[in-house]
Amino acid sequence: MTGWRRLDRRTLGVTAVLLAGFSVSAGTPIAIGTRSLWLVPAAVLLVGAGVLADYVRWRHTRFRCTAERLEIEFDFVAHTRKSLPRERIRSADLAASPLHRAFGVAVLTIGTGQHERLTLAPLARADAEGLRAELLHRSPGAQDGPLATLDPRWIRYAPLSFLAPTLGLAAFGGLFKVADWFGAGGGLLKWLLNLFGDLPLAVSVLLLLVLALVAGVVGAAGLFAEMWWHHRLDREPGGTLRVRRGLLTTRSVTLEERRLRGVELVEPLGARLAGAARVDAIAAGVKQDDDKTESKTLLPVAPRPVAAEVAARIVGEAIADVRLVPHPPAARGRRLRWALLAALAPVLALLVLGALLTGVLLVTAVVLAAVALPVAVLLALDAYRGLGHGTRGRYLLLRSGSVRRSTAVLARDGVLGWTVKQSVFQRRRGLATFTATTAAGAGAYSVRDADAAEGLAFAAAAVPGILEPFASVPAEASRP
Q1: Rounded to an integer, what distance in angstroms lies between the CA atom of residue 124 and that of residue 295?
Q2: Angle at which helices 201-228 and 163-181 pack, to 10 degrees?
Q3: Which spans in 39-160 are helix H?
Q4: Where are the domains of the chain?
């Protein structure tokens, strides 16, 4: 395919329906509140202008794929042309919203792995899939085999996060916002409180919070289904991993394995208590803010044995049975001190304000201390138990964290260097933090508060030759 081509003309229908829906949803509350029909011609004008602008974009945009480059140009008043060399293309990802799926089109995003991207929006679904296969040198429909598929029972892990209460409170906030549009905010609150009859106000408020939590659980489950339904992770011929997912909006993300520097087993606190984890890619060219779109997640939250098995199949090394080296008791003391300091700071502030202003703040400080101090101690002890490091084959394993425990499985040949940090307090206790720097994922993964001598030996053995010019390392420690 070397000739110039146009985007799919059905983009005009997509734009018309999208703008019409926006006009109705945004204009109806205003029209009811103002009791005016002047918004009807304004909505018609908005839809017409939007479709006309999209027609200009469609009519004057074209693209082509040659043996050397992918090019896209827009020629109307101003002439712009963008292109990507074929040999630098590393990803070709598809996305289709419910509206796109209804019209049979999809959005194709092509990237180089260096934050250079071109977007073709939209193409016919079959054309987008064919172009993806051509750009990545794949045979259409070819695949080595699935590494993982979604088990619908995993949806039970969705509410086990801070997202559930956040969604519940957001739902109540949205309900009151809509009620305010019609001047019924106060009436809605009174009606909700009256649902519980003659119960005390405190009990009624508590029950409302329970309702918000239930709404949040339902919302979290729905969000998980929308994002991860039909999930499938495949290894394709030629060395790529492909993730397909989505219930209403479908997505297809392709990752070259030569950009992969390892994986990360992520265990948020709620999921970890339920014995679950997710698998993220540590890959070059994936920006950290892509975490918002879950573009680097290879496996959603699943039972930890399943997550460990999928991670092992991706990296080619069994990691579930690796015994990590524990860190010295001095590391536990550091976590306890920092946790208690973080918990006591607001308590002390409330005590000072209570002594100056009102006794209510003193009572609040006591209640906060009774709750926060034990929680801080438990989290600190848990964080200490989570510390560990080790090796398996050509990979390093670095684990830390409590609220978000992470086990990074990092390829040795992906480590560019080590940063060794030792504060005054660490030096007194013989501790140090060793950070492996890499051009992938977060860019740095740390062995926190390890024994200084043991950590130095571990870093030297993990990537032989890096530390010898800067530190005295025993000869036997430098051998892998």
Answers
A1: 23
A2: 110
A3: 39-59, 98-103, 125-135
A4: 5-142, 329-385
- pLDDT, greater one: 42 or 401: 401
pLDDT in tens, 291-320: 444 678 999 999 999 999 999 999 999 998
Q: Of 170, 142, 324, give the one whose Cα is nearest residue 235.
A: 142
Q: What is the pLDDT of residues 374-412, one digit of tens each?
A: 999 999 999 999 999 999 999 999 999 999 999 999 999
Nearest CA to 286 out of 312, 263, 314 is that of: 263
Fold of 5-142: PH-domain like (2.30.29)
Sheet (strand 415-421) strand order: 415-421, 431-438, 444-451
CA pair distance 354, 348, nearest whole angstrom: 10
Nearest Cα neighbor of 315 from 287, 281, 341 is 281
Query: Which residues is 84 bridged to in the sheet?
Result: 70
As a residue count, the chain comes to 480
Least confident of 14-28, 47-61, 63-77, 95-109: 14-28
Q: What ranges in 387-471 are assigned the alpha helix state H?
A: 424-428, 452-462
Q: Going along 347-414, which residue ranges are E strands?
A: 388-392, 395-400, 404-411
pLDDT greater than 60 at residue 472 = no
Q: Which residue has the tokens 């830390």?
A: 400
CA 35 to chain centre: 44
Q: How far apart are the first and last CA of the chain?
A: 50
Tell me which DSSP letter residue 324 carries: P
pTM of structure: 0.85
**Measured over all CA atoms, what is the biggest interatomic distance in the chain, rounded to whole angstroms?**
84
DSSP 433-446: EEEEEESSTTSEEE
Instruction: Report the chain's mean pLDDT, rounded to a whole number.
Output: 88
Torsion sign over Cα 368, 371, 375, 377: positive
Q: Would you say the C-alpha torsion 124, 126, 127, 131 has a positive or negative sign?
A: positive
Phi-psi region of 111 (alpha: psi -120 to 50; beta: other; left: phi over 0): beta
Please, is 302 exposed, middle or buried when counting C-beta atoms within 10 Å of its C-beta (0-12, 13-18, 19+)?
Answer: buried
Name which of 138-152, 301-315, 410-424, 442-456 the model is least confident about: 138-152
Name the token pair of 27: 């204009």
Query: Stretch 354-382: mean pLDDT, rounded?
Result: 94
Residue-wise pLDDT tens digits, 202-254 = 777 788 888 888 999 999 999 999 999 999 999 988 788 999 999 999 999 98
User: Which amino acid is residue 228, in one-letter code?
Assistant: W
Candidates 468, 432, 426; CA nearest to 453 is: 432
Distance CA 477, CA 450 (A): 16
Check whether 64 has a pLDDT greater than 90: yes
